[in-house]
Amino acid sequence: MTCNAERIKTILDGVIHPETGQGIVSSGIVSDIAMQENGVIVTLAFAKQRDPFANSIKRQIIGAITAACPEYAGRVVVTEREKPAPAKKTTVSSTASVKHIIAVASGKGGVGKSTVTANLAATLRDMGYKVGILDADIYGPSMPKMFGLENYTPQATVENGQEYILPADANGIRIASIGFFISPDDALIWRGPMATNALKQLMHQTLWGELDYLLIDLPPGTGDVHLSVVGEVKVNGAVIVSTPQQVAVADVRRGIRMFQADGINVPVLGIIENMAWFTPAELPNNRYYLFGQGGAERMAKSEGIDFLGEIPIIQSVMEGGDSGVPAVTTNPTIKQYYRAIAERIVEKCNKEA
Ligand code: ADP
């Protein structure tokens, strides 16, 4: 009997895959038989990435063909079809369900960036939006204290086979803070890649759910964390916080330029002047501009960005920061300043979108 392709096919179907008990031709493992002038090439396609029986099957094929067709002895080649690379498990960032991501930045520390983030979040919530805060200030995470969450222990959960971190809920504001994972004493050793990696995880793995606004409280200045945040998620806009003293300082301009730089291209929504003036309790109609008036507005103009509004120095703002409830919740005066600023931000975000 001549050893043509048909005959070889029959011979090969006598080779049984031990797991299925079926012949390797009828079960589709043999994908091709190529009769060459002086040999035969059998191509196999196993269903599994690594079939444990592959080698023994290859040996059996060679044995079976050479037994039936001795003219092919030493001229049987068995190959495996190249398998497509296994589908990489893509991790869907939990920020995918967030409509607007806003970074809150400042040139220097202590200007009230975190206070502004917390109060803006509470204002947006009161306006009916779903709001979250990512506290990315790895050098001084203050959201736990501002929302009375110092003892909060983050919980993990699994959804659709993916592991997530549950954000804390502060009266409807979803909060994830790097501070939940480190004690203030350890903050100093959290520099460089360790901190940015932890932050990336927090960014992508917090179960934010549907959010209208996610505010990211960045560390002061410009640095690795800023680059890592803008590199990881689509930041829709940046808000710069400054005090009258700090507004003329180069750090603020540097901060603005960083967001505007090529390759970063985050629209700067504008600047907020915090601690703009002081009103003593006994003289409620007096405004004392201790560090000059209108500096932030002038600076915004010269930088070609918007001035979003000003917030005075108010005793209860300081107390709000310590009491676990943002001042806008209890102080109607401060609430109106924040409301005006939040409305401008919402309007700008809707335009940018
Ligand atoms: P940053 O995040 O820029 O480092 P914080 O938000 O921690 O600054 O604020 C620094 C301090 O200033 C805090 O004690 C805070 O309570 C206080 N503070 C911020 N804004 C005001 C304000 N408008 N009036 C009074 N105190 C304020």
UniProtKB/TrEMBL annotation:
<dbReference type="GO" id="GO:0016887">
    <property type="term" value="F:ATP hydrolysis activity"/>
</dbReference>
<dbReference type="GO" id="GO:0046872">
    <property type="term" value="F:metal ion binding"/>
</dbReference>
<feature type="domain" description="MIP18 family-like">
    <location>
        <begin position="6"/>
        <end position="71"/>
    </location>
</feature>
<comment type="subunit">
    <text>Homodimer.</text>
</comment>
<dbReference type="InterPro" id="IPR033756">
    <property type="entry name" value="YlxH/NBP35"/>
</dbReference>
<keyword id="KW-0411">Iron-sulfur</keyword>
<dbReference type="InterPro" id="IPR019591">
    <property type="entry name" value="Mrp/NBP35_ATP-bd"/>
</dbReference>
<keyword id="KW-0479">Metal-binding</keyword>
<comment type="similarity">
    <text>In the C-terminal section; belongs to the Mrp/NBP35 ATP-binding proteins family.</text>
</comment>
<dbReference type="Pfam" id="PF01883">
    <property type="entry name" value="FeS_assembly_P"/>
</dbReference>
<protein>
    <recommendedName>
        <fullName>Iron-sulfur cluster carrier protein</fullName>
    </recommendedName>
</protein>
<keyword id="KW-0547">Nucleotide-binding</keyword>
<dbReference type="GO" id="GO:0005524">
    <property type="term" value="F:ATP binding"/>
</dbReference>
<dbReference type="InterPro" id="IPR002744">
    <property type="entry name" value="MIP18-like"/>
</dbReference>
<feature type="binding site">
    <location>
        <begin position="107"/>
        <end position="114"/>
    </location>
    <ligand>
        <name>ATP</name>
    </ligand>
</feature>
<keyword id="KW-0408">Iron</keyword>
<dbReference type="InterPro" id="IPR027417">
    <property type="entry name" value="P-loop_NTPase"/>
</dbReference>
<dbReference type="InterPro" id="IPR044304">
    <property type="entry name" value="NUBPL-like"/>
</dbReference>
<dbReference type="GO" id="GO:0016226">
    <property type="term" value="P:iron-sulfur cluster assembly"/>
</dbReference>
<comment type="similarity">
    <text>Belongs to the Mrp/NBP35 ATP-binding proteins family.</text>
</comment>
<keyword id="KW-0067">ATP-binding</keyword>
<dbReference type="InterPro" id="IPR034904">
    <property type="entry name" value="FSCA_dom_sf"/>
</dbReference>
<dbReference type="Pfam" id="PF10609">
    <property type="entry name" value="ParA"/>
</dbReference>
<keyword id="KW-0378">Hydrolase</keyword>
<comment type="function">
    <text>Binds and transfers iron-sulfur (Fe-S) clusters to target apoproteins. Can hydrolyze ATP.</text>
</comment>
<dbReference type="GO" id="GO:0140663">
    <property type="term" value="F:ATP-dependent FeS chaperone activity"/>
</dbReference>
<dbReference type="GO" id="GO:0051539">
    <property type="term" value="F:4 iron, 4 sulfur cluster binding"/>
</dbReference>
<dbReference type="InterPro" id="IPR000808">
    <property type="entry name" value="Mrp-like_CS"/>
</dbReference>
